[in-house]
Specification:
The chain has one domain: Non-ribosomal Peptide Synthetase Peptidyl Carrier Protein, Chain A (Orthogonal Bundle). 15% of the residues are buried. Helix 1 runs antiparallel to helix 2. It is mostly helical. The termini are close together. It is 57% helix and 0% strand. It has 4 helices and no strands.
Length: 81
């Protein structure tokens, strides 16, 4: 992902997980905070799909266990750009 796309993904995480605008999300992992529970996870998946116009498959939804993993998954959908 390019820097602008990474910033967009950070914004999706902050907004969806109700974090402050400057919150560091690069090290976030599933269940690291109360908002990223199973329901928060599905909200995050939907927000990522909408923001990047992608459709994650079941394995990707399961594998999306951290910000870094989300960046890798979205990056593959965007052609590694």
């Amino acid at each position: 992902m390019n820097p602008e796309q990474l910033d967009g993904l950070r914004a999706v995480f902050r907004h969806t997980l109700d974090l402050e605008a400057g919150a560091v999300v690069d090290d976030l992992a599933y269940r690291a905070l109360p908002a990223w529970d199973s329901i928060g996870h599905m909200r995050l998946v939907a927000a990522i799909e909408t923001a990047f116009d992608v459709m994650l498959d079941t394995d990707e939804v399961i594998d999306l266990s951290s910000f870094a993993q989300a960046a890798a998954i979205v990056g593959r959908h965007l052609g590694g750009v």
